[in-house]
Amino acid sequence: MSKPIMPSTNGTVQIDLKAYQQWQQLTKLLVAAQVESKDRIVKFDAKKLTTALTYGLQLSDSALRAEIVNGSAPSVIPQSHYTLWPRVEGGVDLVWSNGDKTIKKGLLSEIELRQKALIGGDIVSAKINDAKQVSDIRKLDHVNIESELMTLTRAFIESGDMLGMPERLIVTHNNKTTLVDDSGMPYPYVIPQSVVAQMQLQVGDQVDLRWYAHDLMTMRLIWRY
Prior knowledge:
The chain has four helices and twelve strands; from the N terminus they run H-E-E-H-E-E-E-H-E-E-E-E-E-H-E-E.
């Protein structure tokens, strides 16, 4: 556990820069989720607040997902039936609900998801053992889920030379959409070198990107065609 932020004997304060930057991102998302503040009561947009809380949880555990619960009783999912929830790093969580809470019971990788022709929002039956290995998957239905994840499909990998970054690979657009930040300025995604090596990427490849809406810093490359 990191030490609390406390002044030292000479009057200076030492903080962990990465933790501070993560806190800044979470604070930014929470502020963006606020829709009104009056009489000491702050109202939030439920979808944006879900994103903010999910991101906050993922600072320590990328397998966690927050859900805002209201007074209505959610439907109960049979113990062998699961809803597929997309993950920012690719793939989906298999989530089961008993009416009072939701539990992540297992996951499918992006490769498994595409091999089985499944997408987020699908309801499936499956067997999940104690090691969380998933088998005997069968699609039953599909529901629309409110996810703050954004996806850019079949985007083109380009050389970073155009941005003065030789030997780096970037993604700026697909056939229909150019990546931009909240102000409308172009936002080139610079692919980490470890991802380039792992996926053997090169200029001209087409890929899928995924990120949390309003937070391009969470962007991940999840698939190469």
